[in-house]
Here is the input.
Amino acid sequence: MSKHGKVLVAMSGGIDSTVTALLLHEQGYEVIGITMKTWDYANSGGNKKETGCCSLDSINDARAVAVHRGFHHFIVDIREDFGNYVIDNFVDEYLAGRTPNPCVLCNTHIKWESLLKRADTLGCEFIATGHYAQINELNNRRYVTKAVDENKDQSYVLWGLSQHCLERSQFPLAKLTKPEVRQMAHDWGYTDLAKKGDSYEICFVPDNDYRGFLKRNVSGLEERVANGDFVDSNGALLGKHKGYPFYTVGQRKGLGLAFGTPMYVTEILPESNTVVLGSSKDLVRNGMTVGKINSMKYDTIPDGMDSLTKIRYKDQGTLAKLSNNGDTVSVEFYANVKGVAPGQSAVFYEGDDVVGGGIIRRNVSEFK
Here is the structure.
């Protein structure tokens, strides 16, 4: 009988998830490792060597640690669920003129549900991952708080986790820094693992070319969207583009036209295959509407609350007033913000605590 019970650990083969498993094993938990196969690189069509959480090397690395430490390890194929939800959404969002965040969807709708289902089958009380974040509790509600290592903090990508998921989740790296995690791996004798770099790619776009992915996976897309119009904010024609799905709000490079001054994508209009360009100041917004809300710290997002609101992973956040409209939250920034992209996640913070989050539906130039 283990000291603390059984825990199912998501092991990608990387340093963070491996140290997570080793820490729990040392603490006396009965650890069971699980590696989820989410994507088949052979079908990606990219030209980059197979790397990352879905590669055969990563799976073998995870299994080798489990064998060495004497705990069980399983591989679970969730490619069908992953493809049906995450990849279909990824494609649909770009075709709708939005910029998706597939890693958030994968965490909240695929990986956690798959982990919980296998945990129940294997009799595990808890699941654990190598995320840098903390879980706290207030008034019988659990919520995510920023990690001690703010350089590695991943609270932003966890805004969608339900209370059910949080009740059974552990983040053993919550109070550790990345250098400390590397040192642990080294001290345990895993010197190659300690040198492993972090992966920031979307797992099913290993070459980081999402445009190529769309072309390979949407039949006839290039022909359907070619020769659309670049226009300015007044609708004046500026030139022709290669298709609206191949551009994102805030993009400056790769427009294929020379203007003599920096121009940015400020809006995407899929109905007319039109991409609006403007100057840096044309990217400025002072509000947005956020949908698909998940309230984490409180039963609902407090109406009228002031929150530090992040609109992308590496965003430092901007103070904003939140208005709860039921299905949506209106966000009024107290300072102008650039590059508010529909489809991305908006995450609301109270200090270091995640109040909740959602998906940006539209941005607002002049909040009223």
Notes: The longest strand covers residues 284-295.
